[in-house]
Specification:
alpha+beta, globular
Length: about 625
């Protein structure tokens, strides 16, 4: 008889109570029945005993969840917390004082035992509590510790005359910012001149956050821990206190600001002939929103001074886009959801697909160019650095994507043996507008995730051999970290002991920044799903037209133009006898066959808020 083996991995629990353990090899996840979890909960690192492809938890190695968010209730034997996340189980006993006014309120708790928690925060009820609950479940906090806030206020002072004197003074340059209308942390600005030789001189001016946030200070340690700002429909969880992020570091108009400026010379064909980073001081001439710039570009608003400048900016942006296209950049052009909330009630007013305008493309192209130029220069200097990397797609995932594309009859040149950015773009270019968001999302999932690394391996999605994040130090720690390295080199401070320290530091900072970026993205996505579900909750009984985006044995997923996706269960499909053909990924009935990409009219039948899920029924024709 074969003996059980012991393995360690991360436990994922389903809403039905059973789980799977993912281990660090190529084996399939191991099934764990509900009765064999033995006190372990979703996301725990566990040791399991495996026999005949089934696991049993024998030890909880590490409890990954720091904050348990849920509703506190009163039971016969004391208070308990019902988690918001159904995968965490039905309830956890509370130790410590519980007052009557806490009952049935949303709370945050910390584990003090496998199934015992202590309340650390009462969120209450009302406007914004739903979003705060998700934020806390990811251990994110708006507030900073007192010592961090105090240090930020001490640091937030105008630069001295001595500091200004040693910098390249660009205050006489015409420099503008282009950002979302509601942005408060402005960390990039641009200048552009067309020279007599036909070349462009592009200036990408970035807030010099490293002047205010010193290595190993309380501010720096907090920024390292957070690693990124996180954006929600009703708030921002900033990486740095507002006295820095919204004030002294923010590139607000008509005030002197310290910056790192990447000055790039570009020939008429778009080739970079020279790039150099300077410590500078600037004074923004004007702040524009994306929509304001777009109105000028569309000739809806007249601006005699800015129009010629913008004409050159558009020419350069399109030239740079052409270069990236010719080297294999992949442009998904998948609409991003824009959640619009009522400021008084916090309830969702609308959810729309956010347009990608020429005004966005100008800033994107200029920032990409600066990020590349900086990465290439410091790679050539062979200095410790943090790169933004994107590996080639995994062959297995490409094969799965190819299988998924079969029912769509999409033209493509993708191959599991090796697919280039050109192959992906060719496929995307052959999609109809209705299919682009659906198949674009599938193609995106077939790729690796971009991450931060101390090694330069290039960026597949951009077709770039060198890439970094240099342009957003207010909201991203890797940008702040490489600013310090750049300034050390400019000021000739890179001694061998510092280089030795930096080699270890960039590796640790890259790992931490990637980890926190993933958590931030998951939190943002969860809030978006919550608000989409809330939006559709008021639409029960209403009809929508959508596109079939997924087919499973239990039903059909339908994607709506407002970016909401919902499920039609088989019992809510038109009356028929259905068979799921997994090979062709179609649902076959006696009277009709459903395939991916089909148009379908649906009626909103139910919304499950705890799971953030929307259900439809198919309208009978």
């Amino acid at each position: 008889m074969a003996k059980p083996i012991k393995v360690t991995g991360v436990l994922s629990v389903t809403s039905k109570g059973y789980g799977f353990v993912a281990v660090d090899n190529d084996e399939d996840d191991i099934f764990v029945p509900a009765e064999k979890l033995n006190g372990a909960i979703h996301s725990d690192m566990v040791e399991i005993e495996v026999y005949k492809n089934r696991g049993s938890v024998i030890r909880i190695v590490e409890r990954k969840i720091q904050n348990l968010v849920g509703t506190i209730m009163k039971g016969k034997h004391g208070a308990f917390v019902i988690p918001d996340d159904e995968r965490l189980g039905e309830g956890f006993n509370v130790v410590g004082q519980v007052t009557t006014d806490m009952i049935e309120k949303k709370v945050v708790a910390r584990f003090v035992g496998d199934h015992t928690v202590r309340i650390t925060e009462v969120l209450g009820e009302g406007v914004g509590v739903d979003i705060t609950s998700i934020i806390r479940s990811y251990n994110l906090y708006e507030e900073f510790k007192n010592d961090v806030e105090a240090e930020a206020k001490r640091a937030a002072v105008n630069p001295s005359d001595k500091e200004i004197a040693r910098r390249l003074d660009l205050r006489d340059k015409f420099i503008i910012t282009i950002d979302p209308a509601d942005a408060k942390d402005l960390d990039d600005a641009i200048s552009l001149e067309k020279l007599a030789c036909g070349c462009w001189e592009l200036g990408v001016h970035i807030a010099d956050v490293s002047h205010y946030v010193k290595q190993d200070s309380a501010l720096d340690k907090e920024a390292y821990a957070r690693a990124t700002s996180v954006y929600f429909p009703d708030r921002v969880i900033p990486m740095l206190p507002k006295s820095l992020s919204n004030d002294i570091c923010s590139l607000n108009p008509h005030v002197d600001r310290l910056t790192l400026s990447c000055i790039i010379m570009i020939d008429p064909t778009g080739v970079v002939t020279k790039a150099k980073v300077h410590e500078t001081i600037i004074n923004i001439n004007h702040r524009f929103s994306y929509n304001e710039i777009q109105d000028i570009l569309d000739d809806k608003v007249k601006n005699k001074k800015l129009t010629p400048w913008l004409d050159e900016a558009v020419k350069l942006a399109r030239t740079l886009e052409g270069i990236r296209q010719r080297r294999g950049e992949v442009v998904f052009d998948v609409p991003e959801p824009k959640i619009i909330l009522d400021e008084e009630t916090g309830k969702i007013k609308d959810v729309i697909a956010y347009p990608h305008l020429m005004s966005h493309r100008i800033i994107e192209s200029f920032m990409i160019l600066a990020n590349e130029a900086v990465a290439k220069k410091f790679f050539e200097f062979d200095l410790p650095f943090i790169y933004r990397t994107h590996e080639k797609p995994d062959p297995m995932k490409v094969g799965q994507l190819i299988d998924t594309l079969v029912p769509f009859k999409v033209q493509h040149r993708l191959s599991p043996m090796g697919s280039t950015g050109f192959d992906y773009q060719h496929m995307l270019d052959n999609l109809s507008p209705e299919l682009k968001p659906i198949i674009g999302s599938m193609a995106l999932r077939s790729m690796q995730k971009a991450k931060y690394q101390e090694r330069n391996i290039g960026h597949f999605g951009l077709g770039a051999s060198h890439y970094s994040h240099f342009t957003s130090p207010i909201r991203r720690y890797p940008d702040l970290a490489i600013h310090r390295i750049i300034k050390m080199m400019i000021n000739r401070e890179l001694s061998e002991p510092k280089l030795e320290f930096l080699r270890d530091f960039v590796k640790a900072a890259a790992f931490q920044s990637t980890r926190m970026e993933i958590a931030a993205t998951e939190a943002e996505r969860e809030v978006e799903n919550l608000k989409r579900a809330e939006f559709m909750r008021d639409k029960i009984g209403e009809k929508f037209s959508g596109t079939i985006s997924g087919i499973k044995e239990f039903g059909v997923f339908v994607y709506l133009p407002n970016t909401v996706e919902g499920l039609i269960r088989l019992e809510n499909m038109p009356d028929d006898t259905y068979r799921f053909d997994a090979k062709q990924n179609i649902l076959v009935g006696k009277r009709r066959t459903y395939k991916m990409g089909d148009k379908l009219d649906v009626i909103v039948s139910a919304v499950h808020m705890p799971r953030r899920q929307v259900e439809f029924s198919a309208e009978v024709q």
